[in-house]
Amino acid sequence: MDNKKLHITFLSQLPVLPNCGGIERVSHLLAEQFSRNHVTVSFAHTELSKDANPISESNQNFFPHNNPDSSDDFKAFLKTYQVDLVINQNLAPSNYPFLAAAKSVGVKVISVLHNRPFPYNGYERKAKLITPANSWTTKILKLFGILFPSIYGIFRDRYDRKNYMNIMTYSDKLYLLSDRFIPRILQHAPALQREKLDSINNPNTFSLTNKDISKEKLVIWVGRLSDPQKNGIDFIKVWKQFHQQHPDWKAFMLGEGPERKKYEKVIKSNDIHNLTMLGNRQDIQSFYTKAQFLCMTSLYEGWPMVLSEAMANECVPVLFDTFESAHDLISNGTSGLILKPFSTSNMANEMSSIIRQPHKLEAMQKAAKLAIENFTPEKIASIWLKKINELLNP
């Protein structure tokens, strides 16, 4: 394959900008690396972002998903600019017409699933327990899911299975973010074509530094304040128990979302101290460099950027074992802790145990940073280009 003639278009929900969202940051990093390898890169998105004006951003092409002419416009774009490959970063049904348009003009499509396949499977009741319910309909559905989690799981799995099958129809390849996800997706959707499944890890979004890092008595939680996925309420429980043992430590929750007021109410009503909600911060890396631990309490993830970002800054990750890809990044007990879901007391006690062993904590911090060296943008982009070459030149 002659990279100089290759044109790749990233198709995503929102504009691909370096400081907006995990998927967008990953796409931007990969695009930079592709360009350095003499690949022409363009971007297409189907929704506007409140964080940026795509009209002012170079190389951003907007095709509104709710405009019936957009798929034809996208097809014309692909033909005009002689696009060879579409990397589809959004598996929502609203993207089907755009993928069909690409296939109709002979453009190859790689779709990427950015979450754990069948994310709720095994945690249906837990998910419904913490899912907000603001109407009678959602309250009834929540109650049903709590009382009959296995039945709820059947319907949820059926929806996910149908979506994966449809995406596979429009795609030449479906990439997962870890090899460990492939047995899971085939277990619950055995009709998927195995030869179309592949995997590739996401790159670390922060550059590794050799500067000395000064740590404080600080624990952080980073993510969107939304339930059920991020499950921030369990971190509040972890912190309450941890702080009782270590009153001179402090914690920050970084991120925004619909559950902020609920979390603040829980913190206040339970008289929890030294836990501050800071919202979104542009200087997020400064918190990674100061913190001893990053806690993750998610019900599911794909390849969370906060995990690799923390590890790159010698911040030890402590998380529930709710997504298989965590084991690609972390050697349990060496570069972080992967714990049984959803025991908040165990998470608090495990962190306390490490604090009492300063040499072990320091060794884990160094091991975390060392592990991330396998996921630099250069290395991941090289794997991407090899796989693309194999797809376009079988």
Outline of the structure:
By secondary structure, the protein is an alpha/beta fold.
Structure description:
By secondary structure, this protein is α/β, with parallel strands linked by helices. It folds into 2 domains: 3-118 and 159-203 and 376-392, Rossmann fold; 218-374, Rossmann fold. 43% of the residues lie in helices and 15% in strands. It contains 15 helices and 13 strands. α12 links the parallel β12 and β13 (337-339).
SSE arrangement:
Layout (H helix, E strand, L loop, with lengths): L6 E6 L9 H15 L3 E6 L14 E3 L7 H11 L4 E4 L7 H9 L3 E5 L11 H7 L5 H12 L1 H22 L2 E4 L4 H8 L8 E3 L18 E5 L9 H14 L4 E5 L5 H10 L5 E5 L4 H7 L2 E4 L8 H8 L3 E5 L5 H4 L7 E3 L4 H12 L2 H15 L4 H16 L2
Helix pairs in contact: 1-15, 2-3, 4-5, 5-6, 8-13
Q: Radius of gyration in whole Å, from Cα?
A: 22 Å
One letter per element, helices H and strands E, the order comes to EHEEHEHEHHHEHEEHEHEHEHEHEHHH
Taken as a percent bin, the fraction of beta residues is 5-15%
Q: Tally the beta strands.
A: 13
Strand order of the largest sheet: 3-2-1-4-5-6-7
Alpha-carbon distance between the two ends: 10 Å
CATH fold description of the largest domain: Rossmann fold
Q: Assign the structural class, choosing from mainly alpha, mainly beta, alpha/beta, alpha+beta, or little secondary structure.
A: alpha/beta
Number of domains: 2
Total helices: the number is: 15
Q: What's the rounded overall pLDDT mean?
A: 92
